[in-house]
Write a structure and sequence with these properties.
single chain; 229 residues; mainly alpha; elongated
Length: 229
């Protein structure tokens, strides 16, 4: 302990406090810091073995600057990577938004000129889906542009479980298997409804899993914040 203190030009008590974490700040783990710290440790070790004077203040200050530079550089890099991804995502989402709106417009225009009621209904359903997709994409664009992330507040587990029961019952009453209507587009429409029910069940099931994970994390956090008796 005395040799380390002498090499660092500090008191043995200060070294003890550093080792116990009572002095100094914990550095974030980073591979980029290893060469700086290893080089400084090797220099201290050599001076202890040779019985030489400790590190000069200028050497310690230089090492501190290098460590600070690494930390700042990594923060800048993380920010740059996120910004690059954000710009890429926004570009993709805006292109998709334009396509969804164009598809909705084309389908509605075409539906107005068709006399077959089933085909007219199919085109309107496609347009409706495209509009909903555009609404979702537009909302995510808004989140990315403003940097505002809404809180995770899903419906309660009782509601989600009840909805799962409804979707299960709907799948038992499969329309495409039970209704053998001859019109080909009508068959597509019934199949569409069944596929939607399958999608709803999958999405609600995943929401329940996310809710349970969220409740588990909240419980763990509250336990960690509760002082021991």
């Amino acid at each position: 302990m005395k040799e380390i203190a002498a090499a660092l030009n500090v008191t043995p008590a200060a070294v003890t406090q550093y080792l116990r974490g009572k002095r100094g700040r914990t550095l974030p783990e980073s591979p980029a810091l290893e060469p700086v710290i290893s080089g400084l440790a090797e220099k201290v070790s050599q001076r202890i073995r040779a019985g030489m004077r400790g590190l000069e203040m200028a050497e310690l200050v230089e090492a501190a600057y290098q460590i600070m530079a690494v930390g700042v550089g990594e923060r800048i890099l993380r920010g740059t990577v996120w910004e690059h991804r954000r710009i890429q995502w926004l570009d993709i989402l805006k292109q998709r938004l334009e396509l969804e709106l164009r598809a909705a417009q084309r389908c509605l225009e075409l539906a107005n000129g068709i006399r077959d009621d089933y085909s007219k209904l199919l085109l309107r359903m496609i347009a409706s889906d495209s509009i909903r997709h555009a609404d979702v994409v537009s909302q995510i664009i808004s989140w990315l542009e403003t940097g505002h992330t809404p809180p995770f507040e899903p419906p309660g587990p009782d509601f989600l479980s009840a909805m799962l029961d409804i979707e299960d019952r709907a799948q038992e009453l499969s329309l495409r298997r039970r209704i053998k209507i001859p019109h080909p587009v009508a068959k597509l429409l019934l199949e569409w409804i069944d596929l939607d029910e399958e999608k709803h069940e999958k999405v609600i099931g995943r929401m329940l899993k996310l809710l349970h994970k969220s409740v588990g994390r909240s419980s763990d956090t509250s336990k960690s914040l509760t002082p021991p008796a």
